[in-house]
Amino acid sequence: MEKYAVFVPKLVTKKENFAPGHRACVGCGEALAVRLACKALGQNVIIVTATGCMEVVSSPLPYTSWCVPWIHTLFENTGAVASGIEAGLKVIMRKGKCLAKEINVVAMAGDGGTSDIGLQALSGALERGHDFLYICLDNEAYMNTGIQRSSSTPYGASTTTAPAGKMSIGQVTWKKNMPAIAAAHDIPYVATACPSYPFDMMAKVAKGAAIHGPAYVHILSVCPTGWRSATNLTIRIGRLAVETGIFPLYEVENDKYKLSIDLPRLRPVQDYLKLQGRFRHLSEETINEIQYRVSEEYAKLKEKVACT
What is the rounded distance in angstroms from the CA atom of residue 75 to the CA atom of residue 112? Predict the structure, then answer.
């Protein structure tokens, strides 16, 4: 096993490269995900962050929570900016100005800045084979601008632009499978993660940064504000997303699928949905429809694992 593939709790650094004092909401799963990711990445890193929750809460002029080199970029060009940084570092080394240590380039964006607005730039960067890690912080909507739906919003969830009511159940399309889209680019490494499983998440972030070539890690980030959930249930809800099969944890390394947590039996999706106000309007019929879809998709994932 590679030296970066597992994290021992006692060896995790106490140094905070994403410092406290930011303005994230109480119980924010995304802030926890960034904090853990920064612990895994260390200080030899340049981070590019798209407009979104983490950019807004972490950089109110003249303050910042970033203790590593950090660049804020637009919603649509995070992949392009990361590509430019990676290419620039190669030029510096080619000209003989060798860097003392390898510097990892890491891009971070939300689900809107990844699966919607930033998809073209990300796809181009993956296709060109740039050596960088892309982290999608998925809270399943455009939360920082008012809880608008994105293509990552799950079926049936109520948002401000897809509200539940007499004529609508809320979001009427199924969540876009962004990890599968990334894997379809034939890149060396794709993984899903959740801060509710911190050591699994940190290991995957470190692994993605260490692998040569483009890597993609998709992190489910519970948002109490947008999900209408209790702030003290963030970790529990993240675990339920995994235990119900709604957000399975897995890796795709050189086209080979591997489940990080192989559950012999999934919990009912109702256990996950009932803790979130965004799903409180759903009928039993719709919940059964979601259950069928989740079971079907989980079975497809298990088949891919078995085939590799």
Answer: 8
Radius of gyration of the chain from its Cα atoms, rounded to whole angstroms = 19
Distances from the Cα of 257 to the Cα of 114, 217, 243, angstroms: 22, 14, 19
Tally of structural domains, the chain: 1
Structural domain span for residue 68? 18-307
pLDDT in tens, 127-141: 999 999 999 999 999
Nearest to 206 by CA among 197, 194, 215: 215
- Rounded CA-CA distance 196/219 in Å is 10
> CATH number for the domain including 266?
3.40.50.970
Using pLDDT thresholds of 50, 70 and 90, give the confidence band for residue 9.
low
For residue 268, the one-letter residue type is: P
Tell me the mean pLDDT in the region 278-293: 98
* Gap between the Cα atoms of 10 and 199, Å rounded: 11
